[in-house]
Amino acid sequence: xxxxxxxxxxxxxxxxxxxxxxxxxxxxxxxxxxxxxxxxxxxxxxxxxxxxxxxxxxxxxxxxxxxxxxxxxxxxxxxxxxxxxxxxxxxxxxxxxxxxxxxxxxxxxxxxxxxxxxxxxxxxxxxxxxxxxxxxxxxxxxxxxxxxxxxxxxxxxxxxxxxxxxxxxxxxxxxxxxxxxxxxxxxxxxxxxxxxxxxxxxxxxxxxxxxxxxxxxxxxxxxxxxxxxxxxxxxxxxxxxxxxxxxxxxxxxxxxxxxxxxxxxxxxxxxxxxxxxxxxxxxxxxxxxxxxxxxxxxxxxxxxxxxxxxxxxxxxxxxxxxxxxxxxxxxxxxxxxxxxxxxxxxxxxxxxxxxxxxxxxxxxxxxxxxxxxxxxxxxxxxxxxxxxxxxxxxxxxxxxxxxxxxxxxxxxxxxxxxxxxxxxxxxxxxxxxxxxxxxxxxxxxxxxxxxxxxxxxxxxxxxxxxxxxxxxxxxxxxxxxxxxxxxxxxxxxxxxxxxxxxxxxxxxxxxxxxxxxxxxxxxxxxxxxxxxxxxxxxxxxxxxxx
Amino acid sequence: xxxxxxxxxxxxxxxxxxxxxxxxxxxxxxxxxxxxxxxxxxxxxxxxxxxxxxxxxxxxxxxxxxxxxxxxxxxxxxxxxxxxxxxxxxxxxxxxxxxxxxxxxxxxxxxxxxxxxxxxxxxxxxxxxxxxxxxxxxxxxxxxxxxxxxxxxxxxxxxxxxxxxxxxxxxxxxxxxxxxxxxxxxxxxxxxxxxxxxxxxxxxxxxxxxxxxxxxxxxxxxxxxxxxxxxxxxxxxxxxxxxxxxxxxxxxxxxxxxxxxxxxxxxxxxxxxxxxxxxxxxxxxxxxxxxxxxxxxxxxxxxxxxxxxxxxxxxxxxxxxxxxxxxxxxxxxxxxxxxxxxxxxxxxxxxxxxxxxxxxxxxxxxxxxxxxxxxxxxxxxxxxxxxxxxxxxxxxxxxxxxxxxxxxxxxxxxxxxxxxxxxxxxxxxxxxxxxxxxxxxxxxxxxxxxxxxxxxxxxxxxxxxxxxxxxxxxxxxxxxxxxxxxxxxxxxxxxxxxxxxxxxxxxxxxxxxxxxxxxxxxxxxxxxxxxxxxxxxxxxxxxxxxxxxxxxxxxxxxxxxxxxxxxxxxxxxxxxxxxxxxxxxxxxxxxxxxxxxxxxxxxxxxxxxxxxxxxxxxxxxxxxxxxxxxxxxxxxxxxxxxxxxxxxxxxxxxxxxxxxxxxxxxxxxxxxxxxxxxxxxxxxxxxxxxxxxxxxxxxxxxxxxxxxxxxxxxxxxxxxxxxxxxxxxxxxxxxxxxxxxxxxxxxxxxxxxxxxxxxxxxxxxxxxxxxxxxxxxxxxxxxxxxxxxxxxxxxxxxxxxxxxxxxxxxxxxxxxxxxxxxxxxxxxxxxxxxxxxxxxxxxxxxxxxxxxxxxxxxxxxxxxxxxxxxxxxxxxxxxxxxxxxxxxxxxxxxxxxxxxxxxxxxxxxxxxxxxxxxxxxxxxxxxxxxxxxxxxxxxxxxxxxxxxxxxxxxxxxxxxxxxxxxxxxxxxxxxxxxxxxxxxx
Lengths: 546, 985
What we know:
The complex is a heterodimer of chains A (546) and B (985). Chain A contains 22 helices and 9 strands.
């Protein structure tokens, strides 16, 4: 009957409404949270995506992990006592569990995913046409840049151009050629659409993209294109080599005319990437540029010395091989004196031997054999290196001083505001020289190399530094690269792309040659990646690694 | 002769008359308190074998001899035996139940039952028991008294939290802590509650008991009931204690000589040092001077002092017929072992219960707690690696910031004025108001409204010369504020009815819980004047950062419970609860948790009445489902993460990247199903009583933070995958060993054994090596290579095969393939105990009482920081260990080597894994209670003085260290000597 039905209807509807009201109560309210859709669909929000895409550089350039993976395990460096990753420096038992591998793999792929996300969403972000063109070009460049790191380090591994949405547990193995095909496509977009200059120091510009493209051409043996493009960068944009090599490394001269692209580390440490429990929990354990810590030898407990800001805080991770030191003719080549520190002057009378005054020599390291003396500590060739040239005293040695930072606020400060140079003009000359050499134009090659060598010459020694076309060989070019770019995180890639990694290690690095094997041409895929993929049958570890 | 026959006849006649002279005695035996008839009671004529039994109505008939004063013995299982003179033809016999314990009221979810009627696994502790162990946190006092509840103190810092798990760890990611209910309202901050305010504590362990709390009950429920007022003369109790604490074993680092020997040996290995003449090559001038004069420092010893703990409490309970009031005040002060580590807690409680009329009762329980806590950044880490040769003070007695011109800052740096300060002031207000209506017989409606308001303000200042800032160049000041508002509103309706032998009880509950928090943080670096600390943040020159945050979650629930009892012997309980959580994804917010429990009071059965061995026997069986949603709010969506960035060193460039953890749009409840079977027993007239429970909990749809392949750009997601299983046995036994007029000794034995294992993970049966989760093992294990010794000179050839040399750590090649690599890692041990137990003894002699309480936790492994404190280079200090040299063929520690860093030494981590089982004499307490006569002139009703030693003796395989700490050397645990007084008047 009607009243009954109405009564039940009312009860049911009350129940339904209250249930719905209950469910409404249970909706989450998160005013402080930022989601992908909310932020990246606005112009201001999209800017933050592009800014964030640059930040991944900071995990590699100027960081211990970046030095280990890109500079160590070559013919010019061996382990210091404090080396945290001797397995990378010497290939002794290099396994997939190495934390440098998993750390950098994670950051590089997060960077690639961010670039993919940006490229996919840029049209819906409401940017103006000009901005859209520019940001699109930046994202394409960065994607190519990050993929280059991945493919050269690990070989044919996971590749995608899609934004990750939802939970993805599979990974693919894509041929190296596919990577490079995409790298060249992306760089073409970049080179076409990027502006020549930028008001934001650190953003990629057209010349920087071209410089990187020249490096890519050289890597893939497209020598004519490499030579042409390198030449264009050298001549068209007003870049010049600094008059003195030593000037490149001054802290007051970081944004100079020789730098094509750099990671811009800040003096105001709040903008740098050091981890902070509340504000930046996923940051790097040290933050900013750590190069000043890595190469310094342990001077601070020697008589007459104490740690101070000028002499740096020594982590003594890496030591030059004898081969590297002997590459330099320091009487003609100013780069030796500018790159390496051999003398430490007394700054601590309390521990100084009798007769030493402040400012006197307290420690001398040398690549030569020197007679013993009691006036100051001497670490000469025979103390530091074995007869075969391997490492002996790994705590006291000639130290790379390029990345020193005497402007830090305290002697223990780990963060340096020094910019990490990614590409500088000198590399363009070397690229052009090598490309011309490979094309058979030794004379042209010599011209380019001589520009570098002339700049490197101690005043008055320019003629002594000049080389003739007949002097140029691939090995000579690699030697010159060592002299010019030692420590600048390119060496491992240079040796790999020229196919000389194993050969030169065997010849010049006795510490690593006993462990190096041909499969070390690629790095192990991190064990946590191997453990986490669900298609373990397809995504396998690189050969011989476990 | 005829006279003799006459006398004999007379005597015979007399005797015959005597024999023939009996009369009938009838009577009825009933229960003294309830008046119900007691059948089958044994009635015996004292001194004879004649007797009978009462019938079903309690009636008996017996022939009793005339004349003499005949006594009848009445005995019945569960009742105190009674002797009565048969001086009446019709006797009324009232027998007292001796199972007082069974009539005790036990608090369960949304109600109270008598212990005899319980169907679930519930253990109860009286407030008096908890007062016996002086402690910061009431859960610490409960350690070892509750079978199945594993309680450990997390560290020795003042006010450190206590870790509590009930029946093992079910959840891997979500929290495993139990739910705390105080006076019916959820209250997490159990450390606020003063043990003196507690009337009783109940732990609900099985699903049928916890099902009524649904989602929140999966990890067990701990219910605390605070004291109420009493009518009549007001009672005041005052308690106070003072305790001195000292570190409970702290291992020492190498002294000067030992350190020097190690560094020399390290350099002998590399060939740099051959004799004492070579010392200048490896030591600097300061160190050479200190070696010559045998000067060295024990830094840890300079940092650890004795601590002090004080508590002053007063409570008044009073009231009238209709109004009952309880008021208490407590001041607690704990100074830790390190300077600057101190906690002051002030709390006050007011409980009022007001009966308005027969049908309405209202009341409020409220507490305000104020904490003033100063925390210390751990300096022991720095102290333990500091080179002992360095002298911390100069000749004038001033602190040297960098002794020996070294690079590491003096571990005592934070103790200088204005070097470091970390102070948090928290106020928590907890108010719970209720309205209870009983309009007609058997029905009660109660509405509970609880509010917790929390306000905290923290200031942290680390100066340029503090340990935290020694690797940076400026000071850092931080000011954080947070507020929290927690609301709980529950409406409970109960109806009880008895029809003949059937008793029914129905309960219905509807509740809403809402939790809102917001916080703000301000930070700056380079404070102008260090004395300004974190005040005047505007004076900081750089590193200015600000942040605010908001978080909220809600829970809505509906519950129903039906209790049924037949003749008080057969008990059944059915519960159904429905919870909706805001934290889970739409479509998955609601879940239903049912449970069923039954109990059989075997000792009430007629066939049990004839024996006297068992005076109480109850069998309980239960089955139920509980759930867990303890993930962070907002886990269903994917969020961006902010990265600090700039182009020009002046203006921030906002950078938002995709966060590491991706959201899960399918997030749902984690469900635990528990089966429980238990028996409660009492034997030898209640001298021994206890309960044994066996349980099996299966948890599925585990909330797991699953590691994703980082090639996807994100590295983790919280998903419902995986299954765990916890099964075990719990035994709790109470014995009265000796009872005489002056002497009484009772014991309480508790034993728990839990087997925790992961049954399934994300990929079915594949182990998650990255996270350390293995099928068949507990959630937290140690997975690494297994150290079997050190390679000796004799084994050089074999060592070479693996790539090692004599003096290196030797680990086992598990798979025997001639290579040592990551495949040779095994599970070395679990971080959870195999079993734990407690043995508590209360001895009373005249006015003295002695309490001895022993507690054991066996089978857990720890990563002992001390065992791994070995720096082969001698750059940092090491423990005085037995290391290998060619002359000393040790099998413990590898050869020192100046060119090998600690991180670079292969297998250095394997040195730390140790068996952390321990047995402790947790509490040793001697008290004297003054007799009533001595107290009368003082107008006191009770006065007790006591001395207690807490944590006095620890027995374990790990020497000089309290393994309850878990392996860490920071904030060591303490032992304490306490003097206290309890007064009542």
